[in-house]
Each structure stands twice: as structure tokens, then as C-alpha cells.
Design a protein that fits this description.
Helix 11 packs parallel to helix 14, helix 12 runs parallel beside helix 13 and helix 13 runs antiparallel to helix 14. A hairpin with a 5-residue loop joins strand 4 and strand 5. The protein has four domains: about 120 residues, Rossmann fold, CATH 3.40.50; about 120 residues, PAS domain (Beta-Lactamase, 2-Layer Sandwich), CATH 3.30.450; about 90 residues, Orthogonal Bundle (Helix Hairpins); about 160 residues, Histidine kinase-like ATPase, C-terminal domain (Heat Shock Protein 90), CATH 3.30.565.10. It is of the alpha+beta class and about 550 residues long. The relative contact order is 0.06. The radius of gyration is 41 Å and the shape is rod-shaped.
Length: about 550
């Protein structure tokens, strides 16, 4: 299943790189929320690529998730984390889990960008603070004219040595909820919390006087964070600066204030977001650890099951073969003649033993596939000659059920490099099923040469068919659908056949309509060089679900 098909439904912008060098070029060009990196790549491998990405300041914090189907040893995992990876996922992986992990890193990236944008706005606010300080450097006339501009966005208030308000602009009216007429002449102390009254205010004014222009060593003007008091007694956060302008007859103190209630709310929201992000990260780490533990448990369970199957199969074959041998001797009257009732009993026992031996052999094949120990003998397989040979084998069964066998081959004879024995095993299972469930109707086998090389073989019956919901279930182990005139079987033939098809780098699919019959299609490549590297993972493979491209 392609990564694009897994991640595209989430709506993320995806960039594909086919090598480590190309990935580095993309990282130089773009910023990424998350990087999914294969360990094995042409040229530079995944570890080297990750190390180069982490060595660059701009991409050092970009999360990297390693994906691999081969490098599963602890040493590789440790190396992956040591070069800066946040996760190391083995193929095949659960698409939902991968989408969830990628979604979390995308969300973290977006929220980080939001924080950067908000930090930029805060820096802009700090720059505006500097503008207030520059006003103190203006001359007497320019300072008085600038301070009385009623259109200023900040509250501007002036008072003299007697601490009585002499200027109260429109912004101050809105901020403190007082009319200018009522505020003029009133003490400046009434506008602020008790902590800024009396001696505290005198000290601030004295420091402001020291900061006025022209002093030999002026103190820096102060920016204060205080609590303002509205006319109704409501307190609110204020950032203010106090400057002093010394005239010939008096000192004029100017307060420039800003209501920062909204900014305080934003800062609190940012703090809560940071706490939430930390909690989410911790929960994600915990879930990841649980998933890894469950994966290890599942791998151990599957390994134990395979060993049990193999051991059980070997132990059962000896007594079953003995039963078959002795029952055959009895049926051949080696130990004397049998009456009719004895004959029927021995035949039923012989048939049951053969069915049990078939089940044991299927289980043994399944355990070998799951353990990655099924050996392939790569030879030439000729079509349609191989199918003709199989017809000779299954014709007695077809005659018993009254089914007619027909073979159609499109194009010239073709040969493919594969394991003929395993191909016969797949097709023999498909033909046997078609005969058993074909209700005595004709069975057609078609073979054709594929345009890109290889061959496709389809087995079609006109029997009872398969319901849509059951078409994938038939490829599960030990699943037998409830059908009229139920036929005896092991429930392993089709699962083994599909896994053998995958092992041969091919595929096995089914099309069916209830009441009209079924068609099973086996596709084989023109040449199988060697068993695929994922052979030991077939026990975990499931038929790929349809995914929107």
C-alpha cells in the first residue's frame, strides 16, 4: 500500500523523494512537519540522510519516522533513534496508526507556527513601547502638543507636582470609564490600585524626573505593569510609562497607558495550550509504548503458534499414515474378506483419515509460510500444458460431481520462471473448490499472456457464488462459509493459495455473484528471480483494502 494512498485522505501536502540525496534537496527547499524515511534507499541510506537533516539548524527539530521491512534488529532500531528519529516502524504497518502519528506531528507543527506568529506580534508590541520612550525626547512645545492629541489610541494623562490631573484624553475616558470633565482636577491616585498611591507614586515620579532629557546621567524611563481602576471599581491590567517634562515653573508628568486585558487573556490561552501540548505528547508517548509492547506480544504469539502447528503436524502424520495403510490393506482383503457393513465402515474411516491428513498437510504448509521456511524450486512452467496435466488429476472428481471441464488459452503457448509445484497446488485447490461448489455445471479455465509479461489463469464455475461480505473472509484461516449442501474441507486451501501467490510475486483475487458462480484469477510474473524478502511476513499480510488514489 503506497504511503501517498494512506496519507492523502488526511489532506496533508505530500512530497515524495526516491533517494536520500533528493530528500536533502527537498529539505533545503521546504519546511516539513514530519519526514517518513525508509532505512534502505539507493545511494545514501536512511540513517545517513537523517544525520544530514539533523545537522542543519533549520531542520534539526523536524520529526523523523523510520519505516522498514528489513532492518528490524535492535542495532538498527538503536541507530535510528541515535540519529534523531522519533519513531521506528516495521512494515507492514497499520494505516490508521500511521495516519494518527503523522496527524499529531502535523498538528504540533501548525501550533508551533501559530506560537511563532503570536511571538512576532508580541515583539511588535514591545517595539511600540519604544515609541513611547522616544516621545520623551521631544522639545517642550512638541511634547505638549503631542501629549494633548486627543486621537491617540493609548490613554494619555498628565498631572503636575500636586498630583492633580490636567489632561485626560478620549482614550483615557474609554479605558477608565470616566468623563474628561469629571477626571480633570481629581487626584491621579484614584485611577490606580492602592499599591501605586502615596509614597509609591512619589518614588516613580522622582525616577521619571531623573530620566528627563538633558540630565548628565538620566535613568531609563520605566514601563510599569499595574492595576487600573474603572469608575465602577473594576480592576484591569495596565501597562504604563511615566515621563517628566520640567518647565520653568513646574514639572509635568505624563502617563501613557494601555489596557492589556486582551493580551493577558492570550498569554493565559498560550500557557494552557502549552500545558495541553505537553500532556498530549506524554499521552502519545505512552500509547506508542503500549503499541510496541503489544506488537512484541503478537509476534511472540504468532511464533509460538507456528511452532505448535509444525510440531503437531509432524506428530500426527505418523499415526494417520498408519491408519490409512492398515485401512487400505483391509479394503484390499489382505486380512480376509469383509462383509458389506464392515466394508462401508472401513471406507468411512479411510476417507476421514485422508481428510485429516489433508488438514495436517495444510497446517504444515501454513506454518512453513508463516515461519518463512517454505522453500521454492524455481523452474520453467509452461502454459497451458500445466493446466492439461491438472485436468488429468481432477477429472475423476469432476466426473463424480457431473462437471464438465473446459480449457481456453488466448495466444501462443507461454512459459514463466516460477515454482511449478506451488502453482499446481494453487490451481488444484481452485479446481477442487470449483467442482465441489459448482453444482455439477460446466467449469471453465482460461489462460492468457499479459502485455507486460507473465500469465493470468482464471477458474470460473457457475455454482452458488459468494456473498459480497464473504469474499475476503474466504481467504482467512479456518473459515468455511455456511452453504447449502456443505462440503467437507479444511478451511485452509484458499488462505494458503493466496499466500503462495504472494510468495511467487503474484496475486489471487475473486469475483463472484450469488447464484451465478465465481471466478478466481491467479496472476504470475514472467520471471521470479528469488523468493521475495517479505516472505517471512506473509503471516501478517492481509489483502489490501481499496484506497482512493
Amino acid at each position: 500500500m503506497a504511503l501517498e494512498a494512506i496519507l492523502e485522505p488526511a489532506g496533508h501536502e505530500l512530497v515524495r523523494a526516491t533517494s536520500g540525496e533528493e530528500a536533502l534537496r527537498q529539505v533545503l527547499r521546504l519546511d516539513f512537519a514530519c519526514i517518513l524515511l525508509d532505512v534502505q534507499m539507493p545511494g545514501m541510506n536512511g540513517f545517513e540522510t537523517a544525520e544530514m537533516i539533523k545537522s542543519r539548524e533549520r531542520s534539526r527539530s523536524t520529526p523523523i519516522i523510520f519505516l522498514t521491512a528489513i532492518s528490524k534488529e535492535d542495532a538498527f532500531v538503536y541507530q535510528g533513534y541515535s540519529v534523531g528519529a522519533v519513531d521506528y516502524i516495521f512494515k507492514p504497518f497499520n494505516p490508521d496508526i500511521l495516519r494518527s502519528k503523522v496527524g499529531v506531528f502535523v498538528d504540533l507543527y501548525l501550533k508551533t507556527e501559530q506560537l511563532k506568529e503570536q511571538e512576532a506580534r508580541l515583539r511588535d508590541a514591545d517595539r511600540r513601547e519604544l515609541e513611547l520612550q522616544h516621545r520623551e525626547q521631544l522639545s517642550e512645545r512638541e511634547a505638549r502638543l503631542a501629549e494633548i492629541v486627543d486621537s491617540a489610541m493609548e490613554a494619555i494623562i498628565t498631572f503636575g507636582d500636586d498630583r492633580r490631573i490636567t489632561l485626560f484624553n478620549a482614550a483615557a475616558e474609554r479605558m477608565f470609564g470616566r468623563r474628561s470633565e469629571a477626571a480633570l482636577g481629581s487626584p491621579i491616585d484614584e485611577l490606580f490600585h492602592a499599591d501605586l498611591r502615596g509614597a509609591a507614586l512619589d518614588g516613580i515620579c522622582a525616577e521619571a524626573a531623573q530620566a528627563q532629557p538633558g540630565k548628565a546621567d538620566p535613568a531609563a524611563p520605566q514601563s510599569l505593569s499595574v492595576s487600573g481602576v474603572r469608575a465602577g471599581g473594576e480592576e484591569f491590567p495596565v501597562e504604563a510609562s511615566i515621563s517628566c517634562l520640567e518647565l520653568e515653573s513646574e514639572k509635568v508628568f505624563t502617563v501613557i497607558a494601555r489596557d492589556v486585558s486582551e493580551r493577558k487573556r492570550q498569554e493565559e490561552a498560550l500557557r494552557q495550550q502549552a500545558v495541553s501540548l505537553a500532556r498530549t505528547t506524554q499521552e502519545l508517548q505512552s500509547v506508542n509504548e503500549q503499541l510496541q509492547a503489544r506488537q512484541l506480544e503478537l509476534e511472540a504469539a504468532m511464533s509460538a503458534r507456528s511452532r505448535f502447528y509444525a510440531s503437531m503436524s509432524h506428530e500426527l502424520r505418523t499415526p494417520i499414515n498408519a491408519i490409512l495403510g492398515y485401512s487400505s490393506l483391509l479394503l484390499d482383503n489382505i486380512y480376509g474378506p469383509l462383509n458389506a457393513e464392515q466394508q462401508r465402515g472401513i471406507e468411512r474411516a479411510n476417507k476421514a483419515a485422508r481428510h485429516l491428513l489433508e488438514l495436517v498437510n495444510d497446517i504444515l504448509d501454513l506454518s512453513k509460510i508463516e515461519a518463512g521456511k517454505l522453500e521454492l524450486e524455481i523452474q520453467t512452467a509452461a502454459f497451458p500444458a500445466l493446466i492439461h496435466d491438472l485436468f488429468v488429476t481432477v477429472r475423476p472428481l469432476a466426473d463424480e460431481h457431473g462437471s464438465e471441464l473446459a480449457l481456453r488459452h488466448d495466444g501462443p503457448d507461454v512459459s514463466v520462471i516460477t515454482d511449478p509445484r506451488r502453482v499446481r497446488q494453487i490451481l488444484l485447490n481452485l479446481l477442487s473448490n470449483a467442482i465441489k461448489f459448482g453444482e455439477g455445471k460446466p467449469i471453465t479455465v482460461e489462460s492468457r499472456v499479459l502485455e507486460g509479461g507473465g500469465v493470468e489463469v482464471s477458474v470460473t464455475d457457475r455454482g452458488i457464488g459468494i456473498q459480497e461480505d464473504d469474499r475476503e473472509k474466504i481467504f482467512d484461516e479456518f473459515v468455511q462459509l455456511s452453504q447449502p449442501n456443505q462440503h467437507q474441507g479444511t478451511g485452509l486451501g484458499l488462505p494458503i493459495s493466496r499466500r503462495l501467490a504472494l510468495l511467487l510475486s503474484g496475486s489471487l483475487e475473486v469475483e463472484s455473484q450469488p447464484g451465478e458462480g465465481s471466478t478466481f484469477r491467479l496472476v504470475l510474473p514472467s520471471k521470479l528471480e528469488e523468493p521475495p524478502a517479505f516472505a517471512h511476513e506473509l503471516a501478517w499480510s492481509q489483502p489490501p483494502a481499496p484506497v482512493e488514489a
